[in-house]
Structures are given as C-alpha cells and as structure tokens.
Amino acid sequence: MKIGVLALQGAFREHIQMIANCGCDAVEVRLPHQCGDIDGLIIPGGESTTISKLIDEYDMRDAIISCTFSGKPIFGTCAGAILLADRQNGKKRKFLNLIDIDITRNAYGRQIDSREADIQLAFSTSTPFHAVFIRAPVITETGPGVTELSFYNGSVILARQGNILVSTFHPELTGDDRIHRYFLEMARKGGS
Predict the structure, then answer these.
(1) Among this protein's residues, is 170 annotated catalytic?
(2) Which of 15, 35, 67, 172 is catalytic?
(3) What's phi and psi for 85, nearest 5 deg?
C-alpha cells in the first residue's frame, strides 16, 4: 500500500514518518497526477488558508475530490479537517465539502492557548490517546452519516463519514500510531 501526504504546507513530514513507522510506503503529493498512484491521502495540519490557496495554485482540488469518489480514503488533520468540512461557522463553504460537518477554526483561542489532553478513541478503548491541539478547530455539528469517534470537553474532535476521516488535533505529533493504523485499515478496505 502507498499513502500520499499532501506536501504543500504544514506537518506533512511527520505524517510520512508515522506512516513509515506503521510499515507502509508514504509519498509526498504535490501535483494532481500523483493522486492516481496512491491508496489513500492525508491532508496535514498547517495553515488552512495557505493550504487552500496552494491546492488551487497546483490544481489539486479536482484530484483530491476524484480520490474520494474513487473510494480512496482521505484523512484530514486540523487544517486538513477544516478544508474537508462542508460548513464553517454555520455557513456553507465552497471548497472540498467532503464531510458533513460544521467546523469552527481556532476554537480554543490563539497559539498560546494550544494544549494537550488525554482522550478516548471509540475504536481503541485500551488506553487514552494523548492528543495535541495547536490552534485547533472544533467540530460543532455532524450530519446523520457521520460517526463521532472521539470527544474533548463535550465537542467532537475525531469523526468519520464513509471514506473521509478528520481529526481536529495532530496525531502525527505523538508516538501513538493508533489513528494512523485506523486510517491504514480504511485504505486496506478501499475506504469502506
């Protein structure tokens, strides 16, 4: 299996290392044709406005959407979750719109308000997952087809709809590979 990591801006190197640590190939994706040669795609955290501009500049939008419609799973972390969301602050956005969630950017405040917390994962209840929140968004609403997989302070922070997985925190900045392994299992099953 080969997992692509959108390498336009943000924490793409950390995701590549995490996928490699899980025993799979990971490649940097910067151009549309590279989406045809992968089994799944990760959109990393970073600065969502910058990443969205670069996606358009490199004509990546249609390639990412085509990945999804072909059944390949996509995993968005932090800024990646913002880009995949259907709505932001209650308003329909015109971007990727691939998961039926409403999201609020910088929900906890500025950089100084970033935090770490132990959370429970619905698919792995053995031990808490130590989550890293950096200028993190919060999922404020989920549609009927969305499965809520983790919460923090009463808000959804990890969710899945079909072949789309989003987290509002940065699992790539921990030594815990459970969420990446969950995504790899999605890729093994062709997104289902």
Answers:
(1) yes
(2) 172
(3) -65, 150
Full residue range of the structural domain in which residue 66 is found: 2-188
Of the residues 15, 35, 67, 170, only one is catalytic, namely 170
pLDDT digits (tens, 9 = 90+) for 170-188: 999 998 999 999 999 999 9
- What residue type is 166 in one-letter code? V
Single out the catalytic residue among 14, 24, 78, 180: 78
Q: Are 135 and 10 in contact (CB under 8 A)?
A: no
Question: How far is CA 90 from each of CA 85, 86, 140, rounded to the nearest angstrom?
Answer: 11, 9, 9
CATH of the domain at 29: 3.40.50.880
0.70 cut: is pTM over it? yes
Judge contact between 90 and 102, C-beta under 8 A.
Answer: yes
Question: Residues 6 or more apart from 85 whose CB is under 8 A from it?
Answer: 93, 96, 97, 99, 101, 102, 103, 139, 166
